[in-house]
Amino acid sequence: MGPWRCLLLLPLLAAAPRAQQQQFMEYVERRLALLEERIAQWHDQSSRYSTELRDFKNQVLGMLETAEGAAARVDRLEREVDYLETQNPAPPCVEVDEVLMEKQAATAKQRKNEKYTKLTDCSDTIASVRAMKILKRFGSSAGLWTKDAAGSSEKIYVFDGTANDTVYIFPRMREFTLFSATRRAARIKLPYPWVGTGHLVYGGYLYYIRQQGPFQVIKFDLANKTVVDSSVFPAEEQIPVFGLSPFTYIELAADEEGLWAIYATKENEKNICLAKLDPDSLDIEQMWDTPCPRENAEGAFVVCGALHVAYNTRLPSRSRVQCVFDVSGTLPPEEASLVYFPKRYGSHSSMKYSPRERQVYAWDDGYQIIYRMEMKKKLEV
């Protein structure tokens, strides 16, 4: 008999004899006790099932976390192996061919101080520094930062210090300016360490200076991260090219005419020397002894075939270009403008001219500075 039927019989039960009422109440109690027992069993089973389900869920989650962690570790290891393979290729053997070196030096000396035949119609020279912008302070007191002097890339290349083997690459100026740490930068570990601050990025290649006995110019492909060429610089008994930068022996520079090397030797120890460099073969095409003194010089760059040397002045926080040597002879030194750089901190450890942007990227006591140039025709100076 169901519970609802029992409720319907209550009016009739009230008129029934006491014995029947007693039997009915006992029946109802038995049914209620049975229902309570079933409900208790259901609660026990539900609790047990819930506990088992929760334990199973935790086991599955633990297994998934372990599997995901293992997969992440495998993926990370694969990326690290790929990175090591690309960043650290087997270094090529760079041998010094003394006979070839002597031949190149003899050829360059034969053309020493010859008048230069220009490759372009560039006839501009610097009239003044139009503007100055201090980007940030990054890294050591001495270093180098630059863009590709011959390409359209917006990447920023940073060489921190005067002796290292790691180059930082920021995708754009914005990332370099906004972030103080190097975590936003890609890193290239070079097969050979560089020395000084005279390096250059030109046409997708990094040209940097290595010292292992004689100084070498290393040509490094930034795309596939391999050394594609190297050459011993054909100058004997080299000395620091700038009096205020004892760590730089060769300053590589680029302008509208191509690639240049600024250096100094004991043979002509008071003045700075200049050489035209073939960017493809690294051969020295021509060499010049300039009248620009090394003493108190802190940096130099080339504009339209004219060497500009910057010197530390007695004026507070200023330097100026007070020696200009034009290899084509179209700009006599006495007609060149004295260009003042409103230097703010210490001494420039590097000054890189960008022919595409007509500005100089300078490293001043750990501060990265941009000098925008005002240009004029040589005949108007």
Structure description:
- With 381 residues, the chain is α+β, with helices and mostly antiparallel strands.
- It contains five helices and 20 strands.
- The strands form five sheets. It has a four-stranded antiparallel β-sheet, with no helix packed on it.
- Strand 6 (200-202) and strand 7 (205-211) form a beta hairpin.
- This is Olfactomedin like 3.
Give the arrangement of secondary structure elements.
Blueprint: H1 3-8, H2 10-14, H3 18-87, H4 98-110, E1 124-137, E2 143-146, E3 156-160, E4 163-170, H5 173-178, E5 186-195, E6 200-202, E7 205-211, E8 215-221, E9 226-232, E10 250-255, E11 258-263, E12 271-277, E13 284-293, E14 297-303, E15 306-312, E16 319-326, E17 339-341, E18 348-354, E19 359-364, E20 367-377
Task: Pick out its properties.
single chain; 381 residues; alpha+beta; four-stranded antiparallel β-sheet; 5 helices; 20 strands; Olfactomedin like 3
Q: Count of DSSP E strands?
A: 20
Low-confidence stretches: 88-94
Supply the helix-strand structural class: alpha+beta
Query: How many helices in DSSP terms?
Result: 5
Kindly report how far apart the N and C termini lie: 120 Å
Helix content: 25-40%
Largest sheet: 4 strands, antiparallel
Strand content: 35-45%
Overall mean pLDDT score?
A: 83
Spatial sequence of strands, sheet with the most strands: 1-20-19-18
Order of helices and strands: HHHHEEEEHEEEEEEEEEEEEEEEE
Radius of gyration, CA atoms, in whole angstroms: 39 Å
Q: Which shape, going by the Cα principal axes?
A: rod-shaped
Pfam families: OLF (PF02191)
InterPro entries: Olfac-like_dom, Olfactomedin-like_domain
Family: Belongs to the OLFML3 family.
Subcellular location: Secreted
